[in-house]
Each structure stands twice: as structure tokens, then as C-alpha cells.
Amino acid sequence: xxxxxxxxxxxxxxxxxxxxxxxxxxxxxxxxxxxxxxxxxxxxxxxxxxxxxxxxxxxxxxxxxxxxxxxxxxxxxxxxxxxxxx
Length: 86
What we know:
The protein is an alpha+beta fold. The protein has one domain. Helix content is 38%, strand content 23%. A 3-stranded antiparallel beta sheet has the order 1-2-3, with no helix packed on it. It is flat.
């Protein structure tokens, strides 16, 4: 999927607005789906083919490992602060 600067800028504005309206309503899985995935793939235009999910590192797992073409970024998702499990 190809993105231009204006598309990415609009997507990040929409994401920031959504985040303000839904603060504290995300566990880790929801944070990944509704915030991290959207930030990297819709706003920063990363290609999903350049990301490894749940890659093993010394018996632990990284939620996201970004490649360009070598590993350049590891992202670990956490639940939103203030999230209350029901």
C-alpha cells in the first residue's frame, strides 16, 4: 500500500483524536490493534512485510521487530495505564 505525506498526516491526526476519546480503555491486545498497528502501518506507512510479530529473543518475545532490511526497531506493547480488567 502506498501512502503520501498528506495521507499519513491525516491518519495521525485521526489516531490522536481517537486516542483522546478512548483513553484508558485498552488492554495489551487492544493497544496493539487500535494504536500501535495504526501508528506504524497507517500513519508511518511501514509495510507489514517488513515486520516480524512475536519474534523470539533469548526465551522472550518481542511484539514487533521492524526490518529495513536488518532489525532496526523492537516494540513491546503494554496495556494502557488506568486500564481495569473486568
